Amino acid sequence: MNKLLKTLIQKRDGGTSSSSSSSTTTAIPTEGTLSNNNASTSPDILLTLTHLRKVFYEYQHPKIQSRQQDKHDRLYSTLPMVIKVLSVLTNNEWEERFPELSDYTFTLAKLLVYEIRMRADKEPNPCAASQAIIEYLEMNDEINSLSGWSLLRSLKLLSTGPNFIMDKFAQASLPSTFVKCLYLFFDLPEIIITYSNNDVISPKEKRILFQQIFFQLLSRIAMSNSCVDELTRRDDLLLLFNAISSNCPERNKPWRIQASEMLILIGKHSLQPAIQCIHSARCISQCVENLRRASCDLSLMDTARVYETLICLLIESASLSSSLMDDFRLAHCYVHMKDVVLRLENEWINDESEKFFAHFITLLGDFTYAGHNELKLPSRPETIIDIPNFVMPQPKKT
What we know:
mainly alpha
């Protein structure tokens, strides 16, 4: 886990507990933290695991009918336990020690989808919906808060486990829900600065932590065939193409960058189930049309980065199908891209844009080798070609 994430979580939890407080407060290890002494902690871990399985069994088989919120609260109460247990066990031990892992993962993913959709449905516009969702998902100042942040951390930890975990995410419609959230976050208002010396973590630090976890989950979704297949069934890939070609305030650009990275990862790891959907939904032509309409809003660098993403996707798709290459040509992208390259050459303003231009030209060089059908050189002529009135040039005397 990133150093920043560990530091800020420890900062929120008050740092290292003193011996006097250790009897009342149990520190929950962060994701990926391994015990220094498995022999001494294994009884505690086994006890926690037993209790986790007991609570989840009671959730699945309630003795009395309870309200939905009470059931959700019971599920939330398992989150500190699962983070504690799975952070210590190796991936190979997860299924062996926790046979209900598959059902548990699906249940957690369904809960997060429900919570996000409920908040989105209650709000009158996208801006309010995005704010409500992110307030639920971001870290809460309360150490033991059973919130969306704990749920998100648990799912992020689960995503590092066996391959079937991602299949359960797809069954719960988590990929399409996350992509819709990513698109909604383009409308997020500025972070309200209410930070004081008494605050443990500033609002900006909370946003950075949330983006780290959220982006890691999106990246794993993009590398999973089952998750990408779920995105294609719900036509949510078009949202990603619209996202990379839409303007947004400077503060929200990280969301657009992540949309580009998702498409590049899909191209490298799980493009096969997506090609037909990208072609049928006219994703490339829609993306380029957005660029042309937003030519006054998007900077030259932003426009070039969209083409960078498209080219990376086309290079990966060329060996599988010619359909996306054909879509790129029919949308007159070569003409538009030529204008972008010429403007980049003449208008770079700093070292960053100059480096990007050099990288972009290199990428175009790689693009020239992409194609579905191999180009073969014509066979050598069997007869000598006679060119009338041809005279061999003579070297100039020096």
